[in-house]
């Protein structure tokens, strides 16, 4: 099938691809002579670039962990229909409302003459939670969510360290900006100022750091 060119590629995909290429350009090993425009201090000597490499590994692992836990959550919800919950009748012929915790049950059934309804609702919620826990143990959703939280904490700590470090090269400035864009605008879709302008500045920095084939 013939190529359709770029007409089917969305602006979001184009921006995302640019950030990926920018990261690859900055992280790449030194190219043959003339391919990289060197500053007074090589980016290979800049500790900020080294910090950025560590952050980028954590960032990619975090993305993978997030996609995994979302996939498992979707699997659980498809199997069970919802998170643990129970029906609370509003009044005769007035339908019901879902309660997801004991506090909601107490709020929806506050009266003394509703003791039995509260008991039944709590029992139904406990049964729903037990069913969820059994399926969760088999699927591994909670383990995946915990793993995502752990690597997200590592990514955040590395990002803070990176952003507080003083760059010693243009590449160091570029990687700090790249990590900021990836953390705050992960889909490269924000259009209000200053996000388009920041993406343009990153493009300028990468072009200065690398040859014309790097982007």
Which descriptors apply to this entry?
elongated, 7 helices, single chain, disordered N terminus
Strand content is under 5%
Average pLDDT, rounded to a whole number, is 82
**Residue runs with pLDDT of under 50 for 5 or more positions:** 1-7, 29-43
Strand tally is 2
Largest sheet entry: 2 strands, antiparallel
- The DSSP helix count reads 7
Helix content: 55-70%
Question: Radius of gyration over alpha carbons?
Answer: 25 Å
Global geometry: elongated
- Following the backbone from N to C, one meets helices and strands in this order, namely HHEEHHHHH
Q: Label the structural class.
A: mainly alpha
Strand line-up in the sheet with most strands: 1-2
Tell me the span between the first and last alpha carbons: 27 Å
Offer a concise description of the structure.
This protein is mainly alpha-helical. The chain has seven helices and two strands. Helix content is 64%, strand content 4%.
Task: Explain what this protein looks like in three dimensions.
There is one protein chain. By secondary structure, the protein is mainly alpha-helical. The chain has seven helices and two strands. Strands 1-2 form a two-stranded antiparallel ribbon. Helix 2 runs antiparallel to helix 5 and helix 2 runs parallel beside helix 6. It is elongated.
Describe the secondary-structure layout.
Elements: H1 11-27, H2 47-80, E1 86-89, E2 96-99, H3 102-108, H4 115-139, H5 141-164, H6 170-184, H7 195-209
Antiparallel strand pairs: 1-2
Helix pairs in contact: 1-6, 1-7, 2-4, 2-5, 2-6, 6-7
